[in-house]
Amino acid sequence: MGNAHERFDCTVTEADKGIGKQIAAQLAAAGVSVYVGSRDPERGQQAVDEIGGRARLLVWARSPAGSPRASAANTARSAHDSLGRPT
């Protein structure tokens, strides 16, 4: 039987640096699929490469300040482009 954590997916925001990156690394080490949230694709990919395991990049889309609806729509589009259609 596999690790129970292998059944979980987790998104960690700002996981390309600092405490977010450390949290993502610990989750990945425990066998969790981790989506590394980053606004910077290059820095995010570097974090994914360093974390290894089941880490994948999720680029947060930038949107105009003060526009939560646009931000949510852009992030959903970005997630779809990065990860595919949700099941």
Automatic annotation (TrEMBL):
<feature type="compositionally biased region" description="Low complexity">
    <location>
        <begin position="63"/>
        <end position="73"/>
    </location>
</feature>
<protein>
    <submittedName>
        <fullName>SDR family NAD(P)-dependent oxidoreductase</fullName>
    </submittedName>
</protein>
<feature type="compositionally biased region" description="Basic and acidic residues">
    <location>
        <begin position="78"/>
        <end position="87"/>
    </location>
</feature>
<dbReference type="InterPro" id="IPR002347">
    <property type="entry name" value="SDR_fam"/>
</dbReference>
<dbReference type="InterPro" id="IPR036291">
    <property type="entry name" value="NAD(P)-bd_dom_sf"/>
</dbReference>
<feature type="region of interest" description="Disordered">
    <location>
        <begin position="63"/>
        <end position="87"/>
    </location>
</feature>
<dbReference type="Pfam" id="PF00106">
    <property type="entry name" value="adh_short"/>
</dbReference>
